[in-house]
Recover the amino acids of this structure.
């Protein structure tokens, strides 16, 4: 142990190694509701890829587990270290290296937060359009979880914006994959394999991200519906219209009540409409041209009413912003209300009505309370699950995931598997695929030091 | 050999196995200019995934190489079998299984051609927006090469539209990856790994493809420029404008001359402008609204003139269609003119001016004639290389690829490595990445039967 500590100090400098016991409590956990806080043996903060490589060499030689940590905002426990692990925190590698306005890319270190990138891109009239709700999350964490968020219906998720990475392998080799180009057919796409791998294949020390022109005009339409099924039925039609919404979220009445209450939000909806609405659709539009936006807003309002909305309200800018923020923080509202777990299963968007019906059945049968909201445009449902009994809860979750998979879905749309959903993943996923993934893991990490216990046992 | 033949006949039925010597000459080759035609031992046409799996089991047991074949329109020799190989032709698995209008996806068998899919999606007002130039190409081949084409600047390439695959592993296992959803964080993304793997990791027996609403209105602007550098300099500005072109191609004067001549095309450009133009930009726009399209066309014309175009012509529909078709078939024009090889290197689009300057230097120094066109919006340059001397040509190609990589590019943007560009790939690519890719190959295909000789030696 002392050997390892001094070896790490030689690599990153004594100031950048702490014993797990001395490090802040925050390093022991992420935001996952079921994560078990665990202090690692060491918290190490490398300054560059070279130092990261040396840490991995030391780990591989000694068989010491390594867990990467961005901002610890993950919801699957994937950044929670083992007690004997080196936690590699990317807090010092936090620079936006370049905003390339000609190629429309940003080159960032992994510790850069979404908030910083948002500020830097805004200065150049560009935008990194992936908006997972928690802006303190790091780009390294976003890449490793393939983070999504509300704008995915228009722009896709992290995967679609990572053009390249610099990554350190468990062998200590530093590789560069992809680059400032949007396509290639030059061998296997290692970048896409590393995206979403939850720190189990390689450590990302730099990412090249695709940017978009920042469009000047945005507007938000809020449409209350009499029932949840009508909301989710409307979703494919809004997508098919070609209006191309930036955001297309559903929020059930319970969740809307909770987030507006928590955030002291007045939406200006008549009491009587509010009282009879069981769910809401939030549609945000954007355009580079104000007039076109106005036309699209009008068309959206008409469309939503035709699809069964009780009414359609254009929210004033500040209310819209606050509603979106409240929605982004819905996780904390659920946590505050005592939710025992959250899931973010994804399925074909047209299967949402059937899935929501099954959710109600599963909830009732298992005496579990389930409410939620979701990136409806992507078929990504975020449900808060209230059930204190661990066995009953596990049974309900298994049934929810099984139902989603039966309808053509997958366990997680964006939060990842980590520790939290691993049992369900290993239980429900095709064994041939699990075996293949393990062989891929072996190809990257022969000594198995990268985030052991995440994804696989 | 007879054993294998009867075993294959047992699997797919005698009518669907041919000896290589009896099969049509076409099975011995693809469209690659440097591919060496080779008849396989057997040509087998499975009817479904189960039969495909049985073929692979037989191959793995006996160590017999297997090469998948779609339509044989590839340009890298990747579908050219070895003499001792089983060529698995997907000609019988050629059905569009579903056009799902609610989820906006198509489910296809691998032998479906782009042309068939275009017809089927049109019936539903949807479109599969990836348009690699050769519409007789199969979706299986498109997936395996990560095919691109002219519309990638707007919609991305094949990779961005493959939501899931059914694939047969060399172990004979059939797996389903992804599905009718646009995102997931549920283990490694096997779909994205299989896309672009040129038949070396798995055989694709079904693909789930993302569709888009088919927009009603299109227009094409043709802008001649005095010199090539001005054209490629204009490209990032057009992208940055936010106009969002569907197509953004450059065509040099020599190539424009050749394709208009071959296709007997009148563009209606005054002689004097044509004679002084060294390169052209072709910008195609689309919109769901005719008025918006008109405005965008006007804005594009102004922008191009401001960026140095001699003029900007809005092409009448039929001329535009014929110009795009001629551009799609530019490969055959180059072949007809005696080109000895074609390359399709990709690089950051802002590096195009510097790259084009280096191309001229390399061409002159090696006494090689190089002309071209390209998906300029993606930084994907298609060059026809005229040099009869194989050594000189190899040297020139190596220098072209090295220059592209030095400027942040990669060897192939969409055609793939196959046999044709393998020597350059193995020579110029980072050995650590090659070694990692080989370990991944091993994880999928432990007996090494899938397309040996492609990508790796
Ligand atoms: C209020 C709230 C709202 C949220 N909303 C969304 C949402 O809308 N969409 C969404 O997708 N997520 C959302 N999340 C989840 C979370 O923000 C994302 O998962 C985010 O990507 C995590 O980033 P992080 O830096 O905090 O990663 P961490 O939690 O630190 O780590 C997450 C994973 O990434 C790995 N990792 C971190 N850095 C690296 C690196 N450099 N190299 C390799 N692996 C690395 C870790 O080992 C771990 O496996 C939300 C979370 C909260 C608390
Ligand atoms: C005139 C012309 C223009 C072209 N324009 C473009 C262009 O703009 N953009 C572009 O990207 N390409 C272009 N191409 C190249 C070619 O059309 C593409 O590479 C196409 O994807 C090949 O499809 P195919 O069915 O002919 O594949 P094949 O040539 O039959 O095979 C190509 C590769 O895919 C593998 N494969 C085929 N089917 C399967 C399967 N089911 N499972 C696993 N592996 C499989 C083969 O083994 C091989 O490695 C052009 C070609 C021509 C001749």
């Amino acid at each position: 142990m002392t050997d390892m500590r001094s070896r790490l100090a030689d690599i990153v400098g004594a100031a950048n190694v702490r014993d797990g016991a001395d490090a802040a409590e925050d390093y022991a956990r992420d935001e996952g509701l079921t994560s078990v806080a665990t202090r690692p043996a060491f918290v190490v903060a490398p300054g560059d890829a070279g130092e990261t490589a040396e840490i991995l060499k030391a780990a591989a030689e000694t068989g010491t587990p390594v867990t990467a940590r961005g901002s610890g905002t993950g919801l699957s426990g994937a950044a929670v270290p083992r007690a004997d692990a080196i936690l590699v925190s990317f807090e010092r590698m936090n620079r936006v290296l370049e905003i390339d306005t000609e190629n429309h890319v940003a080159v960032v270190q992994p510790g850069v937060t979404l908030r910083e990138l948002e500020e830097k891109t805004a200065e150049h009239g560009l935008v990194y359009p992936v908006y997972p709700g928690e802006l303190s999350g790091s780009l390294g964490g976003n890449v490793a979880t393939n983070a999504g968020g509300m704008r995915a219906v228009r722009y896709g998720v992290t995967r679609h914006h990572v053009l390249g990475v610099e990554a350190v392998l468990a062998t200590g080799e530093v590789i560069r994959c992809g680059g400032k180009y949007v396509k290639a057919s030059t061998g296997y796409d290692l970048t896409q394999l590393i995206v979403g791998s939850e720190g189990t294949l390689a450590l990302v020390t730099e990412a090249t991200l695709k940017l978009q022109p920042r469009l000047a005009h945005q507007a938000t339409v809020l449409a209350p519906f009499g029932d949840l099924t009508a909301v989710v039925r409307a979703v494919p039609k809004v997508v098919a219209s070609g209006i191309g919404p930036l955001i297309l979220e559903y929020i059930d009445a319970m969740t809307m009540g909770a987030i507006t209450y928590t955030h002291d939000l007045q939406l200006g909806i008549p009491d009587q409409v509010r009282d009879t609405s069981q769910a809401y659709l939030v549609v945000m539009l954007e355009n580079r041209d104000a007039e076109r936006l106005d036309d699209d807003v009008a068309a959206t309002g008409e469309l939503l009413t035709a699809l069964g909305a009780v009414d359609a309200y254009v929210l004033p800018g500040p209310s819209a912003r606050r509603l979106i923020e409240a929605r982004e923080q819905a996780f904390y509202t659920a946590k505050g209300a005592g939710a025992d777990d959250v899931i973010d299963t994804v399925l074909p968007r047209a299967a949402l009505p059937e899935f929501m019906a099954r959710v109600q059945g599963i909830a009732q049968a298992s005496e579990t309370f389930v409410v939620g909201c979701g990136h409806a445009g992507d078929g990504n449902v975020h449900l808060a699950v209230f059930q204190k009994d661990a066995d009953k809860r596990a049974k309900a979750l298994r049934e929810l995931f099984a139902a989603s998979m039966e309808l053509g879905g997958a366990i997680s749309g964006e939060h990842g598997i980590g520790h939290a959903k691993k049992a369900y993943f290993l239980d429900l996923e095709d064994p041939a695929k699990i075996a293949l993934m393990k062989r891929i893991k072996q190809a990257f990490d022969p000594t198995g030091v990268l985030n052991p216990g995440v994804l696989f046992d």
Q: What stands out?
A: Chain A has a mean pLDDT of 95. The pocket of flavin-adenine dinucleotide (ligand 1) is lined by residues A 30-31, 67-75, 78-79, 90, 110, 132-134, 137-138, 140-142, 144-145, 147-149, 198-199, 203-204, 328-329, 331-332, 414-415, 451 (CB under 6 Å). The radius of gyration of chain A is 22 Å. The longest strand of chain A covers residues 217-225.
